[in-house]
């Protein structure tokens, strides 16, 4: 995994005279192997920053660096993979979960290896590989979200950006997804930017917390310190 760094990143929607500066000069580093929690009120710019990190939005200013190199969004698998609040943003309801995950495995992988990789990823997210033929609608919300994580991992990303991935889940099943995040970090050293408006969720997975307000990072530090602040 890798270090992701936002360096003076500014993102505006609309034009110069009429528009919104959604992200305003953000400096933020996700260290190699760390889970950094990004919290903030609705509208503070979290999703905009996330989408820029995976190349879904152009920057107005600044740059995004992966291990010190400007992030490139060419063809081929994206080095930064995103998992969304709604698993259907990355899972096609008409495809089996095995095919959805397999599709994200880098091209050039032989089909037998691809099947093996799908089985390995399903096990990693604690689903029975025998369920590869199931469709997303046949799974629970928590299982679907774990399949979305498996699909993101299939692309062998350097960093994962998780945008409110537990927010649409019942509290009783949020834990299965959060435990997966913790395990990925511990066992694979996955670098992750973990976005949530829910502090209880963030404190459970993140070693550092950054607080966003009106497009800026207004506070950033170790989780215990940020939460201890009056
Ligand atoms: P958050 O994820 O923290 O809720 P967003 O990144 O979604 O915040 O939004 C930040 C700001 O950008 C808000 O003022 C929002 O209204 C605005 N915004 C978000 N998406 C768009 C868009 N596609 N076009 C114009 N403005 C947008
Ligand atoms: P969540 O989907 O919220 O993470 P669980 O993973 O505990 O919750 O699964 C919910 C239900 O789905 C359980 O009752 C279990 O019987 C069934 N289930 C879970 N994983 C599998 C699997 N790999 N194969 C078959 N059934 C499963």
List the helices and strands and how they pair.
Blueprint: E1 4-14, E2 19-30, E3 35-40, H1 46-53, E4 61-66, E5 69-70, E6 80-83, H2 97-104, H3 111-124, H4 141-154, E7 159-163, H5 171-188, E8 191-195, H6 199-205, E9 208-213, E10 216-222, H7 223-228
Parallel strand pairs: 3-8, 3-9, 6-7, 7-8
Antiparallel strand pairs: 1-2, 1-4, 4-5, 9-10
Helix pairs in contact: 2-3, 2-4, 3-4, 4-5
The chain binds adenosine-5'-diphosphate (ADP) (2 copies).
One adenosine-5'-diphosphate binds next to strand 2 and helix 1.
Radius of gyration: 17 Å
Morphology call: globular
Give the neighbour order of strands across the main sheet: 6-7-8-3-9-10
From the helix content, strand content and strand pairing, which structural class follows?
alpha/beta
Report strand %: 25-35%
Distinct small molecules bound, one entry per kind: adenosine-5'-diphosphate
Cα distance, first to last residue? 34 Å
Helix content estimate: 25-40%
Query: What's the pLDDT, averaged over the residues?
Result: 94
Q: What composes the largest sheet?
A: 6 strands, mixed
Q: Which stretches of 5+ consecutive residues score pLDDT under 50?
A: none
- How many E-type strands? 10
Specify the number of helices.
7
């Amino acid at each position: 995994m890798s270090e992701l760094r936002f360096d003076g990143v500014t993102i505006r929607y609309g034009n110069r005279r009429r528009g919104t500066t959604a992200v305003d000069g953000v400096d933020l580093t996700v260290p190699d192997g760390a889970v950094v929690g990004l919290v903030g009120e609705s509208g503070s710019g979290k999703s905009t920053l996330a989408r820029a990190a995976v190349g879904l939005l152009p920057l107005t200013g600044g740059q995004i660096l992966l291990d010190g190199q400007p992030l490139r969004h060419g063809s081929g698998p994206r080095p930064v993979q995103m998992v969304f609040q709604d698993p259907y943003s990355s899972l096609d309801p008409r495809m089996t979960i095995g095919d959805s995950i397999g599709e994200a495995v880098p091209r050039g992988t032989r089909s037998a290896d691809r099947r093996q990789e799908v089985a390995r990823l399903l096990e990693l997210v604690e689903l029975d590989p025998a369920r590869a033929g199931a469709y997303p609608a046949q799974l629970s919300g928590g299982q679907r979200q774990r399949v979305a994580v498996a699909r993101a991992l299939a692309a062998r990303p350097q960093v994962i950006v998780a945008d409110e991935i537990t927010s649409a889940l019942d509290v009783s099943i949020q834990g299965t997804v959060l435990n997966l995040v913790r395990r990925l970090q511990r066992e694979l050293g996955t670098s992750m930017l973990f976005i949530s408006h829910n502090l209880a969720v963030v404190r459970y997975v993140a070693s550092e917390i950054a607080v966003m307000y009106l497009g800026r990072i207004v506070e950033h530090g170790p989780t215990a310190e940020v939460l201890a602040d009056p």
